[in-house]
Specification:
The complex is a heterodimer of chains A (107) and B (356). Chain A has 107 residues and is of the alpha+beta class. In chain A, 16% of the residues lie in helices and 19% in strands. With 356 residues, chain B is an alpha+beta fold. In chain B, strands 1-7-4-2 form a four-stranded mixed sheet, covered by helices on one side. Chain B has a three-stranded antiparallel sheet with strand order 3-11-8. In chain B, strands 5-6 form a two-stranded antiparallel ribbon. Chain B is built from 13 helices and eleven strands. The chains are: A alpha+beta (107), B alpha+beta (356). The complex binds FE2/S2 (inorganic) cluster (FES).
């Protein structure tokens, strides 16, 4: 199973496994990764599962989809070019080793 | 009430994120007043209805399409009372504002008035909490629901020919469109909740600030704080204090095994004051560390009106009221008019100011 790494605002890393076919937010929530709130449970309606994809992986992960792009304008922490909603990132074997940064704030 | 109460923050969050165990399909008074609707459905049915209704409520739509009209309406309502020097901010401002925004703008019910919407909403909410089974209350609720059905049927016909970006239009033109009866029932739900919830957050937040002049000064000096006032108000006195779920299987939670079919209440009013999560939870504190509150619910049923309410209350209603009505002060403590526990808010908020 792919391993993904969440880097928290204080610099600590959480390394968790993420099953292919699920979404990145799921891996965070089921492993209790702090800072991924995911109020709406993955429906791209709350903007509280925001992450910054590490610069090395932005191309691999790709750009936000249309619905997500709109919601990213309303995140609590500033939007950056690397911003994604983790509930909209589909896990595949290609994402093994993915690093994302958890923002300071989600609400 | 024949229910197990989940009162701790963590247990409520846990239940909200497990809709396949904590099902929304439950018989109850809501079904009697409005009929089958998306609040009482699980996915995939819920997802289809929600996807059809949601697009006009998303934050970019609110900002780009609705905000201008919302603001004009708010100014008109204030123009009407500005010279008077006194008003009930609930009856004279908040309720007509949110009713007009909801009916005329968001839902696209141009064939109804803001007064109609407010009255229909009240009649249905009374029905939803008619635990005493008062026949007059049922009758009023039924009249309101019939009036809504007629108004909706007419607008469905019109928007079928001319899409107008409203929620009704979105329901008609969705990739998986909704049937007329589904549209009618879900519009009833939106009218039921869409008036009292933003109105109550407005009222409670305004009241909290009027009684805390130092906090109000801080907010007026830093308008970015209105957002915090909104989230803290929704946490402190949540407009929806409780909602029901029913177990689809035996399940252990909070150390108790509940059997399949058990009815459960997620007590938001309690979870939002859980001391394990919010320090000094009973205090209204706009500077507290940001933690997500439960007032909008969570999981697939996350409040569809969240972005509309945030905008109309925190970006518009409060800043305009406190900006335009100089020397605003409460005429009494208002405390005794804080009512309800399933739906909680101020029934009136009487204030005075220096009339221009
Ligand atoms: S979980 Fe709500 S937007 Fe991702």
């Amino acid at each position: 199973m792919p391993i993904v790494i969440f880097e928290l605002p204080d610099g600590t890393e959480r390394k968790v496994t993420a099953a292919s076919g699920t979404v990145l937010m799921q891996a965070a929530v089921s492993n209790g990764v702090e800072g991924i709130v995911a109020e709406c449970g993955g429906n791209a309606s709350c903007a509280t599962c925001h992450v910054y994809v590490d610069g090395r992986h932005t191309e691999l992960v790709g750009p936000p989809n249309e619905v997500e792009d709109e919601m990213l304008d309303f995140t609590a922490a500033e939007r950056r070019p690397t911003s994604r909603l983790s509930c909209q990132i589909q896990i595949s074997d290609a994402l093994d080793g993915l690093v994302v940064h958890v923002p300071e704030e989600q609400v | 009430m024949g229910r197990h109460l989940l009162t701790r923050y963590d247990d409520i969050v846990h239940a909200e994120k497990l809709p396949e165990v904590f099902s929304s399909r439950e018989e109850g008074s809501l079904l009697r007043t409005v009929g089958p609707n998306m609040l009482r459905e699980d996915d995939p049915d819920h997802r289809r209805l929600r996807a059809a209704a949601e697009p006009p409520t998303r934050p970019r739509q609110v900002r780009d399409l609705w905000a201008g009209t919302f603001e004009r309406t708010a100014h008109e309502l204030l123009d009407r009372i500005a010279d008077r020097g006194e008003a009930d901010l609930i009856r004279d401002f908040a309720e007509p504002l949110v009713a007009a925004n909801l009916a005329l703008v968001l839902l696209g019910l141009r064939n109804a008035s803001a007064d109609d919407i407010a009255a229909w909403s009240r009649a249905m909410m009374d029905g939803n909490s008619n635990y005493a089974d008062d026949p007059d209350i049922w009758l009023r609720a039924e009249r309101a629901t019939r009036a809504i059905e007629e108004a909706v049927a007419e607008m469905v016909d019109i928007t079928r020919r001319e899409p107008d970006g409203s929620v009704i239009s979105s329901m008609v033109h969705a990739p998986e469109p909704m049937e007329l009866a589904e549209i009618q029932n879900n519009v009833k739900v939106v009218i039921g909740g869409g008036v009292n919830e933003p109105r109550d957050v407005f009222g409670v937040g305004a009241w909290a600030l009027l009684r805390r002049p130092d906090v109000l000064d801080r907010v007026l000096g830093d308008p970015g704080l209105w957002k915090r006032v909104f989230e803290e108000t929704a946490r402190w006195i949540s407009p929806i204090g409780m909602y029901p779920r029913q177990l689809t299987q035996d399940y252990e939670i909070a150390g108790v095994t509940l059997s399949a079919g058990s009815r459960v209440a997620l007590v938001i009013a309690s979870g939002n004051r859980d001391e394990a999560v919010f320090e000094r939870a009973d205090e209204f504190d706009v500077a507290r560390p940001h933690r997500p509150h439960l007032a909008f619910g969570g999981g697939p049923h996350f409040c569809m009106g969240a972005w509309v309410a945030r905008h109309e209350v925190s970006a518009l209603a409060w800043p305009l009221v406190f900006g335009r009505l100089k020397g605003l002060g409460p005429t009494d403590s208002a405390e005794d008019r804080l009512e309800g526990w399933v739906f909680r808010g101020l029934t009136s908020l009487n204030v005075t100011w220096q009339a221009a």
